[in-house]
Amino acid sequence: MAAAGCRLHPACRVRAEKFGLLFYDMRGPRLLFAETGRLMEPDFFQGEVPVDAFLDGLDNRDRTRVRGLLAKLREKGYISEQ
Amino acid sequence: MGLYAPVNLTWEMTQACNLKCRHCLSSSGHPAPDELTTAEALDLVEQIHTARIFQINIGGGEPFMRPDFEEILAACHKRGIMTCISTNGTMLTKELIDRLAATRLVNIQVSIDGAKRETCDAIRGKGTFDAAMKALELLAPVKTIATSMNTVLTAQNANEIPELYDMAKSMGVSLRVSRFRPSGRGVDNWDNLRPNAAQLLAFSDWLARSGDVRTGDSFFSLTSQERQGLGLNLCGACKLTCCVGPTGNVYPCAFLQSAPFKAGSLRESTFQEIWDNSAIFNSFRRLRIHSCEDCRRYDQCHGGCPAVAWHLKNEISSGDPECLERCVTTIAEEAKNAEAA
């Protein structure tokens, strides 16, 4: 992913839960439970945070987890790259 | 894994309705005494926003009967809350649809209960088929409103569901099929309108082949393996969703809007307090249908719809009497009895 932010699709929403992040897609509707703990905040998906810079600040294990989540969100249409 | 708030909220905004459908879950017609005022409704919208609930599914009654409905909708949309409006379509005009379309946060379900005029009108009242079709024709070309036909499956229209699907497809809208449950006027008309086991089984088979038909969480107790990935495998009441009635009472779901299931009143507590602390909600979260645990389909429906069990057996933990497994058993028993006779 380029050094750009991620933005939710207009039909999608995200909020913090105890387990991490809960994504909602009105088009299904469908849900995606992301067990990220406190690794990421919902604000990450407002498109303002450069993804590369965010990933650089993580250790290898968390970087892999976040990359996996972003790939899944992109594949399922929850997010787009800026 | 308890959520901080529901994913979506069913808000039965009024009991006022210009129709008197035979299956109406809330016996709508006249407004309920002491419905939420505009100020109270707007305060609830703010609470929903604070709780970060994603979507409000708005029903009634006919929500457009509320004179302040657009004001309440505007408050939702200003806060980015998605809305899905269930309507009979009789009050929709092009001007109103244009205003709703501009928000890009509205889905609309238009109720229609048969592919044939006489089938629909016999359930919903004279002229309802034409009114619904007119509303759907106005909505279909509007790209920013996801529109669906919403049909309650009954004995009378069970054979017309594939035709409704074709109608929806040809119009460019989707089909949503809902389950008929014995609440409201549905209690009085249960024996006449309820689909029989063979119809439910045929519908289940058809649904398995029709992946783009929406059902909400209506039919998880009938859902075959082929469709499992598309929806829930258990009742979402008090876990993912709940219901606010016209006077601000909060319930597990729209089909359990009665005193034994009242979780609280928004006139006495905040929504968040009720979600977090209600004894009724906590009991639903712990509910396990033990009598179904040995069933081979338990992991696929977890005992089915507690509301149907309550209305038919007066016991929420007794298992859904119309689940897929019971339909198969009923048909087998009927065949055996017929052979013996």
Observed structural traits:
heterodimer, A: about 80 residues, alpha+beta, two-stranded antiparallel ribbon, 5 strands, globular, B: about 350 residues, alpha/beta, nine-stranded mixed beta sheet
Overview of this protein structure:
The complex is a heterodimer of chains A (82) and B (341). Helix content of chain A is 27%, strand content 28%. Chain A has helices spanning 51-56, 60-75, and strands spanning 6-8, 12-17, 20-25, 30-34, 79-81. In chain A, the strands form two sheets. Chain A has a three-stranded antiparallel sheet with strand order 2-3-4, with no helix packed on it. A two-stranded antiparallel sheet of chain A has the order 1-5. Chain A is globular, with a radius of gyration of 12 Å. The mean pLDDT of chain B is 93. With 341 residues, chain B is α/β, with parallel strands linked by helices. Helices cover 38% and strands 13% of the residues of chain B.
Name the shape of chain B in a single word.
globular
Helix-strand category of chain A: alpha+beta
Q: What's the helix-strand series of chain A? A: EEEEHHE
**Dominant shape of chain A:** globular
Greatest contact between two chains: A-B, 14 and 17 residues
Binned strand content of chain B: 5-15%
Average of pLDDT of chain B: 93
| H/E element sequence of chain B | EHEHEHEHHEHEHHHEEEHHHHH
Main β-sheet of chain B: number of strands, strand sense, barrel status? 9 strands, mixed
Radius of gyration of chain B: 20 Å
Helix fraction of chain B, binned, reads 25-40%
What is the number of strand segments of chain A?
5
Strand elements of chain B, count? 9
Distance between the termini of chain A: 10 Å
> Multimeric state of these chains?
heterodimer
